[in-house]
Amino acid sequence: MNDTAATPEGASEGEGGEQRDPAGQRCGLVAIVGRPNVGKSTLMNALVGQKVSITSKKAQTTRHRITGIRTVDEAQFVFVDTPGFQTRHSTALNRTLNRTVQGALSDVDVVLFVVEAGRFGLDDAKVLALLPENKPVLLIANKLDAVTRRAEMMPWLKGMQERRNFAEFVPMTAQKMPDVERLLGIVRPYLPEQPWFYEEDALTDRTDRFLAAELIREKLFRLTGDELPYTSTVVIDKFEEEGHLRRIAATIIVERDAHKGMIIGDGGERLKRIGSEARQELERLMDCKVFLELWVKVRSGWADSEEHLRSYGYE
Known about the structure:
Elements: E1 12-13, E2 19-20, E3 26-33, H1 40-48, E4 66-72, E5 75-81, H2 92-107, E6 110-116, H3 122-130, E7 137-142, H4 153-163, E8 168-171, H5 177-187, H6 208-224, E9 233-242, E10 245-254, H7 257-264, H8 269-286, E11 289-298, H9 306-311
Parallel strand pairs: 3-5, 3-6, 6-7, 7-8, 10-11
Antiparallel strand pairs: 1-2, 4-5, 9-10
Helix pairs in contact: 6-8
């Protein structure tokens, strides 16, 4: 996966490099928002058709504004996956994540407000209160397959409609491709008629270096489960391209020595597994061989330090 850039003056190229006629094209920014752990990143990856945003059961997995791009016929969807809005902690990290959510909302053309089908709690309500009044908001009732009594959905939907005049109501399961394709069709009319921002085959505006850090962090969260607090991150120290080989060195940053021990594991086995699984996925994603080195360092208080956050790439 390579870096992508907008073609000058919005023009885009078709096969063979010829200029495509921008007449009739639609293109717009679509924010995916919701509380932590409602399936935003899973939905993003399904909409794009390839993994561009990491997933895990741990809250606060997504920490950056991730852009995923999908072009279907004459419509280009530019999806923006945002961190789950944080309401339970007040660290500098959480304040930064919340600013990312609010900044994304100010730029977009349409908002997908993702909730779990049949559920609506205080954290959902706090996110809903942030949504702009002047933008169309689609209510995405995700994880529909987990609802055992479909009859209970109607009173729930009525209650949701009383909270806001949603432009559309879309019950779905993000892992089901027919549901995903149906959602693309529903969103399409909300995209402005204008030339595409990116080339037709673009998938994300993020670099391979950024995606490497994210995939390592995903494996870190998945393989440590609830043992490891969310205050850990990954920094890429080296990213070198040598033909069909990528040499990557990365450091996992934690706040305490005990957290370092959790990651390394007995005899270094857990760190080896994190590295092995990350390397295998990076090879699939980048379609090349990857040599990956991982280190673990303790940086006490990094998540509450504006200076550390900036140095680690948080916006």
